[in-house]
Design brief:
mainly beta, globular, 825 residues, 8-stranded mixed sheet, 48 strands, 8-stranded antiparallel sheet
């Protein structure tokens, strides 16, 4: 079958070949990096922690770090933007949790949850009362729902022979009664999957009858009538309510192609989004025609909220004209809210108000009422426990966002008006009480997705948490904000020598808080702070998983571009570094657009975090004697939509400033500096080699190099190719392949699922470079998506990177003095 990769393919992987330095006949086997890198790579990841709604315990989840390439080569269907394992009727990849431990916050007591043999666990959730824990177990032929008693840890599988349908995401959600779950199931009477015709019945046809329908370049779209049939087959679900004690199931409604299902806060209704034909072959399923209905749990009556057409044709900077972002209002039992455009969905239309927010309350028989209007484009709304609304709107042209307080019977009050890009101005996010509202499962969408929860309110106060960006780096915090006076008080801030994130308040007045503490010497652990008594105690005592990295040192460095924009980066030095020694340096970065120089100059990140390295991180280069300049800011600055007008010049200027800094610090020398990046960072890498001679070599992963292949915009660029063709050409390193004189390695996942980075981007760029006589290596990774996952793959990537930079950077001969940056301009 054209769409399905069978498992036996894994058996022949060792015989596959990739294109090497010269001929395509190089025998290709998965390579291994040095032993010390493998030992660090194989370190067991620290457990993730989930706080119970009662805030009395943590669920610590332990996962297998990396799937094998054999697991990645299991059958996969690529349908409407999703990747589905047809055997399990779920996602291609899961989180691979194999164990769960419940840990009491009060005394540190632990209870191990019993899990099924050879567990492959995902989607772990506490019941609202914290007395039960649900999780999914994915087997070769289906997905099961398990429930554990949090007091004893004993668990049981309650779905029996029925299977869950997890094609659109999390298939189950707890109702507020903590006794019942609502789940999307595979219909019990479903027949065999549609067979692909052995002989085509005709050509596959798409057409457009004069209506403009710009669209980004998406992967995994439906292409044929058989794809349509497969999509309908695997994405059709039966909604069921399941008793967590007995496993008894009550079916709700008829089977349908359900994109999302969200229970109301009262648990009496379900907000159901059904996908309907005709399916688009141009955009993913979240843009397909949809019907949004409220289903009653009691009498199974359906109330239609919206009938939405395909989103094909919605402009790149616009929104759909009908209801969007439909969800439950979390502070009321059963009220639906949504947004509608008042400007035809187009920013170019001049109107006094762009959007309105509407609401409709049970029994959903009357007309909806208008809740609010926004002058700018609606961004988000949240509600406190006392019904106070915090509504945000944003303006793309000015890159500003402002937030209003809305209370019944009162005029709106502006609480914040700030630049979106300005990290120092970010007031943080309201603390949500997660046990008081229903979380969405399935596709969801709008208003932050699903039902969410209510904002925690104590008297006139709400609480805000954030990363706390500042001139000295990030220092996370929790503030208390008075909604009447708009005065805020800082309750806690991470000190200047560590990095401590506020997880949640443990009481209604935030006198006790749970934090995650780490420092360059201390691995992340959870602490409880009694702010009133100024006392702290540890909840967990996780050990250093990678002691071999403790010799690594790092610091946050700041410097300035020649146009005055302030820049920053984290400089890592390898174990055993002797001050004064000049090392080979690798710069690994990712550019970002800003509306103004002040926002671009603001420092984000922290030098106070604990260093752990996993996956195919470039930081593994530290173990091979490199210094790494990590995430040097590469701001592209310009007002409105003009930032990219000077992309190349600003990119090169940022790189020059970063190199000057490491030279000035006595760390690096100009003859041994390399550059690399992933995705947009790969695009950056190719452009730096095309327009400068600053680097000895580059390593570009899963990038896009010819912007004419993404003609309706990319990254934050929303002007089309036909509006600014000269810009698309100037930003495309493919157009400057003849200028690339320094070695570059191109790497790409063969199953890249990212919009705009089709594997053909690297394939064509390689052919262009080869045709121009460049030094280039092109590596494609079987079964890998935009982010690489397989253990064999990840180790191979590390080996390729070390080998490449060792040859062309660490051991590079001095550069010819006649070769300068000016050669490329």
């Amino acid at each position: 079958m054209r769409k399905v990769h069978f498992a036996f393919a894994a058996l022949v992987l060792l015989a596959l070949t990739t294109i090497g330095l010269g001929q395509s006949g190089d025998a290709a086997r998965y390579q291994l990096p040095p032993k010390e890198v493998i030992e660090a790579f194989d370190a067991q990841p620290l457990p993730a922690a989930i706080l119970s709604p009662t805030k009395q315990s943590l669920a610590l989840t332990y996962r297998r770090a990396y799937p094998t390439i054999a697991e990645l080569s299991q059958p996969i269907l690529r349908l409407a933007g999703a990747r589905v394992n047809p055997n399990s009727n779920g996602p291609q990849r899961t989180t691979n949790i194999y164990a769960i431990t419940l840990k009491k916050i009060s005394d540190g007591g632990e209870t191990k949850v019993t899990v099924p043999p050879q567990a492959n666990i995902s989607n772990v959730h506490f019941s609202p009362d914290g007395l039960q824990l649900s999780f999914l177990n994915t087997k070769a032929n289906g997905i099961e729902l398990w429930i554990a008693d949090t007091a004893t840890g004993r668990s049981k599988m309650i779905t029996g022979t029925d299977r869950l349908n997890a094609t659109t995401g999390d298939p189950c959600d707890w109702l507020r009664d903590s006794k019942t779950l609502v789940c999307m199931m595979v219909a019990s009477m479903r027949g065999p999957a549609p067979a692909e015709p052995a002989v085509p019945t005709g050509p596959n046809v798409q057409e457009n009858m004069g209506k403009a329908a710009p669209a980004a370049t998406y992967e995994d779209m439906l292409k044929t009538a058989h794809d349509d049939a497969l999509f309908e087959y695997y994405f059709t679900s039966q909604l069921a309510v399941i008793d967590s004690a007995t496993g008894r199931k009550s079916l709700i409604g008829r089977p349908g192609t359900l994109a999302s299902v969200t229970p109301s806060p009262s648990g009496d209704f379900f907000l159901v989004t059904r996908i309907k034909r005709p399916f688009s072959h141009l955009i993913p399923m979240n843009g397909f025609p949809q019907e949004v209905e409220v289903w009653s749990r009691a009498n199974q009556a359906a109330h239609k909220i919206a009938d939405l057409p395909s989103r094909e044709g919605v402009s790149l900077t616009g929104v759909q004209t009908g209801p969007r972002g439909i969800r439950w209002r979390p502070d009321q039992p059963a009220t639906v809210i949504w947004t509608e455009a008042l400007d035809g969905g187009e920013m170019k239309n001049k109107v006094p108000f762009r959007d309105k927010v509407m609401s409709l309350t049970a029994p959903f028989a009357g007309s909806p009422t208008e809740f609010a209007k926004t002058e700018w484009r609606f961004a988000a709304v949240s509600f406190t426990e006392k019904g106070v609304a915090l509504m945000s709107e944003s303006d793309r042209a000015t890159r500003r966002i402002r937030t209003w307080i809305l209370e019944p019977g009162s005029e709106p009050r502006k609480i914040w008006d700030r630049k979106q890009d300005a990290a120092y101005e970010n007031p943080g996010q309201p603390v949500i009480r997660r046990d008081s509202g229903a979380a969405a499962f399935g596709g969801g969408g709008g208003f932050g997705g699903g039902g969410g929860g209510v904002v925690m309110q104590s008297g006139d106060y709400i609480f805000l948490t954030g990363v706390g960006s500042s001139p000295e780096g990030d220092r996370p915090f929790i503030d208390r904000l008075n909604l009447k006076t708009l005065q805020s008080e800082r309750l806690f801030r991470s000190d200047s020598k560590s990095y401590e994130t506020v997880i949640a308040p443990l009481d209604d007045e935030a006198k006790m808080i749970l934090t995650r503490y780490e420092s360059p010497k201390d691995p992340p652990n959870y602490l409880v702070h009694d702010l009133s008594a100024n006392k702290t105690r540890a909840v967990t005592e996780f050990k250093d998983p990678q002691p071999q990295l403790r010799g690594v040192t790092k610091q946050l460095v700041t410097y300035q571009r020649k146009d005055g924009v302030k820049l920053s980066a984290t400089l890592y030095l390898p174990p055993g570094y002797q001050p004064g020694t000049r090392l080979p340096v690798i710069m690994w970065a990712y550019p970002r657009e800003f509306g103004d120089a002040d926002s671009a100059s603001q420092i984000t990140g922290s030098g106070n975090r604990f260093t752990t390295v996993s996956g195919y991180s470039h930081l593994f280069l530290l173990m091979s004697g490199y210094a790494v300049l990590d995430n040097p800011t590469m701001p592209i600055v310009g007002p409105g939509e003009t930032a990219n007008d000077h992309y190349v010049e600003q990119l090169v200027a940022s790189a020059e400033a970063a190199i000057d800094k490491v030279i000035e610090m006595g760390i690096g020398d100009r003859d041994r500096i390399g550059v690399g990046g992933h995705s947009y960072g790969a695009f950056m890498t190719a452009n730096l080699l095309a327009h400068s001679r600053l680097f000895r070599a580059g390593f570009a992963e899963s990038g896009a190099y010819n912007r004419s292949l993404t003609p309706f915009g990319f990254q934050s660029e929303r002007r089309t190719f036909w509006e600014v063709p000269e810009l698309y050409a100037k930003m495309s390193p493919f157009w400057y392949a003849q200028n690339i004189k320094d070695p570059i390695l191109l790497m790409h996942g063969e199953a890249d699922d990212n919009s705009g980075t089709f594997p053909i981007q690297s394939e064509r760029f390689y052919m262009a470079l080869k045709g121009q006589g460049a030094t280039v290596r092109y590596v494609t990774l079987p079964f890998e998506a935009h982010g690489y996952a397989g253990r064999e793959t990840l180790l191979h990537v590390l080996a390729e990177r070390i080998n490449w930079f060792d040859k062309y950077v660490k051991n590079a001969p001095p550069r010819d003095k006649n070769e300068t940056t000016e050669d490329k301009r």
